[in-house]
Each structure stands twice: as C-alpha cells, then as structure tokens.
C-alpha cells in the first residue's frame, strides 16, 4: 500500500495558480505532517527564482535544497518539508529522475541540521508530486530517502477542506543553560560550531530521555492526549520537561581549553498535532525535536553571522569576553481561521519588516506586521552581571544585519556557507 | 553478633541522580580555584533548592516538587499522604526466576526495609514568556572541569511519616550531601585535578542505622584511614572492626548481586530455642560457595575448597582484603608455592584439609587462624563456649574438616546453663542451583544437632582470626 496524502483545499488553488504562470518548470516544497498512518499537506510554496540560473539546467538541485533548509527552520514542531512538487509541460515519467534527485538532495541537507536521533516510527518516505501544466494531471509518488536504491512508489493525493483547522498544539517555555569548553587555539566560529553541535547533540539526548508532563500530568506513552478527539476544537496543552544530566565517565574531568561558550536563556517551543487522536508519545517527540531545532537554528544563524563579520573584520575576535543575543522567535499564523503557525527568528538589530520580507521570500506569504506574534519570547537582554573574579572587559557585539532586503543575496550567502557547513559535518561524522 | 529480635521495618526513600558540575578555572592559583569551585557548588545548591528541583518515583507516575510546598502529582496524592502509601503507585514487575518460588517464609522473615527509589531531575520548563538566550564567548587559556556529581541520599521513614515530612528531610539530605562533596573536593584537589566525590551508604549497628559518607573516587581505602578514624570516633564505633571501607557499603535489598552467589542464606532460617540459650552467629556478609559452581565440576573432592572460598568471601566483603575469592587452581598453586605440596598438585582433584585452609588464608589473605583439634566428634558438643566466643569476638565462618567431609560452621545456639548446643551448618556439598528455597528447606543451610557429627571420627576446625583494623 502506498502512502496517502490528505491535502488542504487551498493547496490546490495555490498549485493551479502556479500552473497559470509562464512556461518553464516551477518547483516548490510541500509542507505538512507525516505520521505512520497518514500524511497531511497544509501548504505548498514555490522556490524563489534564482537570479542567475545555471544554464542548461532548469531545476537547480542545490537551490531547492537550500530553500528547503531555510523553510525547515521556519516550521514549528510537527510540521516539516514533506517533499517537492514540480510543474512542467512534459509527461510525468520524464520528470522522475529529476524529482528523485531533488528529494534526495533536499533530504540530505535538511537532515544534516537535525541533531536529534531518529525514532523507529519516523516516516522516511518523501513525496514527489508532478503536475502537467496543460492537462493539470497530478502524479504523486514517494521515495524512501533512507534507502539510496529506492524507486518511486505510487501514492494517493487527495484534496480535502479544513485540513488546516483541526490541530492541537503543545508548547512550553524551555530554559537553556549550556557551558562548552573551546579547544586550545581553536576558538573561531568553525570550532565553536563543532563544539556547540556536540553539546547540542548531548542536550538533545537528555531531552529525549527526559520526562514530559502534559498539563501537569505524566501520561502513559500510548495514552491519547485528553480531549483530543473533538473536531474543530483548538486544543492546547502546556508541557513540562524534566531532565537529568547524563552520567559521565570519570576519565575526562579536566581538560585544557582556550576559552568557553555559554548559552543561557529561554526558548518557546511548540508542536502541532493533527487532531486525530494524537498520542502522548508523538506529542512529546515533536515538542522535544522542536526544542532542539529551535536552539540549533538560532546558534547556526548567529554563527553564520559571525563567520561573515569575522571574515570582514578579523580583529573583532580578539576581545576576551563577548556577548551576543541569539535571535528571538516570532510566529505568524498561516490562516486566520486555523491554529497553525510558521515562525522566523528576529535578531534584536532587525526590524519587523525584515521578518515579513523573509516570510514573503521563503514562503510566499504576504504577512501583515501586526499579525506577527512576538509575544512568546522577549528579545535577549544583556543585563548579566559579570561575577568573574577579576574585572574584565565585556563587549556586546553588534553585527551587521543578516538579511539584505532584495532577494537572492541572502540565499547566495547561505549557499556559500553551505560548503563550510558540509565539510564540518564530515569531520563530525568520523 | 547476638541476635536481637528487632522487627525493624519502615520505608527507605533513596534519591539518586547526577548533577552536572562544570566550571572554568582561569587561574592556577589555589585560592582562586577554590573560589570558583565553591561558586559552582553554590550554583548547584541553588538548583537543588529551586522550584525546578523535581523528584520522580521510579516506575510510577508520581512526581514531587519539594520546593513548591511539596507539590505532588497526580492529584490523588497530597503532601499529607503517608509515605508508605507511595508503594501503591509503584508498578511491580514479576520477580526474577530465582526469587519466583521464594516462600512466604522469606517474605515474612526478611526484615530488610522496603526501598522506594527516586530520581533527582530538573524541570527545565518555566512559565513564559522569557528572554531569548544570550551566547557568551570567553577567550582565555584555562582549565575546564566537567563531571557529574553522583548524588545518592537516603532517609528512613516511619509508618507515621507523611510525604511532606519525608521529602523535606530528603531535601535537607541533598543539600547536606552537596556540602560534604564540596569539602571532599576541595580537600583532595591537586593542582587543577579534581577527584569526583562519591557518596556511599553504610549500615551501622542500631540505633545509628544508615549513614552516608562521601569519599573521593579513585583514592584507595588504604589512604583513607584517617578519614575512617574520624568517622569511627564520630559514631562511637569500636576501632578494631571496619565499618567504613568501601566493601562495607550497604547493599540495598532491591539490587541483586551481579556475581550470582547467594548471600547469607541463613538469614531466612528460624533459630532454635534452647533453654536459657543464646544464638551466636557469623557477623557480616559471606557468599555461599558449593560444588559445581563457576563451571567447575568438583563433586566429590572440592568441599574444603568451597568452604575456604566462603571464608575468603567473608574477608573480601568485610573489606579486609581487596583480592577476589581464589579459584581451586589458585588455592592449589598457593599450596605448591609455600612448599606444602608437590607441583603435580596443581590441577589435581586432591582433597585439602583444615591445615591447608589455614595455610592458604595466611598466604593469600594474611589472615591467621587458630586450629581446634577434636579427637572424637562426640567432643564437639562440649565446645560450645569456645565456639560462642569465636563468633562473638571474631565473627568469621569456621571451616571444619578432618577424617570426614568438610563443612562450614556459621554459628551456634548454646545454653550456658544446660550445655545444650546446635550448630548452624553451611554445606558445600550442594550441587544444585542458587535456589534459596531448596537450600534452606533441604537443610543445605540449616541448624544441626550434636548427632550431625560422626561421633568417632576426628575433626580439625580452622578458626580464622580477623585482623584488628578499621
């Protein structure tokens, strides 16, 4: 049996609008929730056009993957990039190879940013949808991205009204407190990234094995969230997470270091579950993963910013102590009627308009500034008193704004950074 | 040890859980390092005293926030619920096969207090909204210390204690343990090298009961004698008997021994009642060694070896020696090494007797033994006073051999007025599995009368003398 995708009606409208555009192929991402039983597609978003498209290659694998990576960062727990769509004038079978390449390239990039450990019930099928511009015929297939030899499997693609409306939400405000040593003579952003990733992996494991309470109660793993069956009721749950540090071996108590990095503050974490009898276990898994990814994304964003600014200004890393605010999370409701939101991260030196512009670029959303919900997290405030033994100079570093207002440049920077990120990943995997 | 009939039950609450200890030592100046370490401990103190501190009952949905007015979930339980009632909320699993057939007798007799295990956790969620995180980068060559403190506290509750009473005490125990850990850490700091403080529980004679001591991990017992001396003074304990060696650490009833040997099987027996009689028993813990264990078929010749192993296990578990219980081969090799036997003895199936046991104890454990010679088994009935005295002052298991089979004597019941006597025998000739039920029902460990001995055969008894150390 193939997978079965239940698709929000509005996605059909969105796709047919894209079909009406000029000739040439259009690619984009399909967003929603996967579960072992069924998948829900809530949104389709086209990949923004690249300024200089490589000649002779109508579908830019790298570009679409980068889009998927950026969009993945903007999805709260429970929502993910499920796959890709492509609109062409050709027959569906002619696009199979392209779709296959796209899906695998995208998956390998997106999963490289995921620091949590995979679970048994994770869905490894990625959707690949082809639409013939002229006939409007839709072909839906899936690829198992965990199996490099997998071939296309037919899947069911069905539009339905109100897919976006009946979702439960689990959320919590999580306190983060990390302290990581930096190796001697290796305190640059690349090494910070390596050390922080390792710490975040450990933190992700501690969260995973932590106890999760829903509205103050510890539920059995197989239990359903209370009251979850009612349709069209916006169920919200507040979670608590109890953790315990992992026992360390005694051997590595002391080490020489060239400095340290600490991350302290709170993040708002949330996950959405399609209200079809959601299980406590799923809610926990998605919420914990969101916690890991929201922290990882921010650290990544800050390091990307640091990399560019330290390249420009080598001397800035000579300061003994520096403080940086990680960006805070801002939510934007997908639809006024439904509970689903997407999110973005705003650095304190960025204006709200930069967030709305980014939403437009990445998700093609015309967001009104007043609809942005920035009430879940306050921007980081540097008020910490330095309790160090000796007086030291603390520098609060203002970095250049991350995003440029016109399309393409920001993405180009990101693609350039990608090469570095990928090579660091190799090192980590060894 | 004179057995007093104390039916001392009650519930022990035991909380365990690591606390992360991380700090950066910018300077190698001893005073500044101490300051940083004390500051890190202070942070942990405030964590344990904060509302985020949570204690979860293992295998249960029960969770307690001791610093939120001892808030408890689920709602069916309140701070005023009796501690004992927690048991009803714990899922119990089927006992392992060894214990499955354990009789009612065992349950009735085991006076060990029940243990409720708790986990120390931190609630990392807060009521939002709060400020987004700040990243701080410090560049300075220094030493980074990173470890986890293995917190492990116990409190003993009585049947009238409520959850509130008990958990307030548990929290006190936690903060006290952090203080102790800080002391030990600072005391054993060498340069920037830190020894992880390690809490251990010891069961002292009543009314003192369970006591927790923090030792620096990795420092051998031999280097901690001054520490132990202070403890003996503090708890007014005799200074010729080890109470605080690591091997003396209390073994909780819900933690099975991993080596598979049964401990003190005689504990489930009912002692004989003699007119004006008293019971004198082996003191401390031994393991039961008998035929066919360790994949070693010694049926028919190994009984004295097994009895010797039981004695060795006593010395190991009382902390006198750190060596493992010797194998048959090691025992034989030792006898060859001291010139007692020819080289061909190693690997043979030859018997050994009480004198060989004495030699091996002396050679491997540096333990001296007295030999008691009895020319006729019938004479053993008159050795009550000597045997009673041995168990009172030495408390070690006795090996008895001679013209016939070897056995281990674990105690005597003896009446000073009538001279009546019973012997508590541990029989090494048992060939079955480690089934306490069979062993005690069939008399492999049991009380025997004077007719147990071959009235005409001669006997040699090896009475190991314990070293007078702490």
Automatic annotation (TrEMBL), chain A:
<comment type="function">
    <text>May play a role in the trafficking of a subset of G-protein coupled receptors.</text>
</comment>
<comment type="similarity">
    <text>Belongs to the ODR-4 family.</text>
</comment>
<keyword id="KW-0812">Transmembrane</keyword>
<protein>
    <recommendedName>
        <fullName>Protein odr-4 homolog</fullName>
    </recommendedName>
</protein>
<dbReference type="InterPro" id="IPR029454">
    <property type="entry name" value="ODR-4-like"/>
</dbReference>
<keyword id="KW-1133">Transmembrane helix</keyword>
<feature type="transmembrane region" description="Helical">
    <location>
        <begin position="406"/>
        <end position="427"/>
    </location>
</feature>
<dbReference type="GO" id="GO:0016020">
    <property type="term" value="C:membrane"/>
</dbReference>
<dbReference type="Pfam" id="PF14778">
    <property type="entry name" value="ODR4-like"/>
</dbReference>
<keyword id="KW-0472">Membrane</keyword>
UniProtKB/TrEMBL annotation, chain B:
<dbReference type="Pfam" id="PF07910">
    <property type="entry name" value="Peptidase_C78"/>
</dbReference>
<keyword id="KW-0833">Ubl conjugation pathway</keyword>
<dbReference type="GO" id="GO:0006508">
    <property type="term" value="P:proteolysis"/>
</dbReference>
<dbReference type="GO" id="GO:0071567">
    <property type="term" value="F:deUFMylase activity"/>
</dbReference>
<feature type="domain" description="UFSP1/2/DUB catalytic">
    <location>
        <begin position="278"/>
        <end position="462"/>
    </location>
</feature>
<feature type="domain" description="UFSP2 second">
    <location>
        <begin position="38"/>
        <end position="257"/>
    </location>
</feature>
<keyword id="KW-0378">Hydrolase</keyword>
<dbReference type="InterPro" id="IPR012462">
    <property type="entry name" value="UFSP1/2_DUB_cat"/>
</dbReference>
<protein>
    <recommendedName>
        <fullName>Ufm1-specific protease 2</fullName>
    </recommendedName>
</protein>
<keyword id="KW-0645">Protease</keyword>
<dbReference type="Pfam" id="PF20908">
    <property type="entry name" value="UfSP2_N"/>
</dbReference>
<keyword id="KW-0788">Thiol protease</keyword>
<comment type="similarity">
    <text>Belongs to the peptidase C78 family.</text>
</comment>
<dbReference type="InterPro" id="IPR049387">
    <property type="entry name" value="UFSP2-like_2nd"/>
</dbReference>
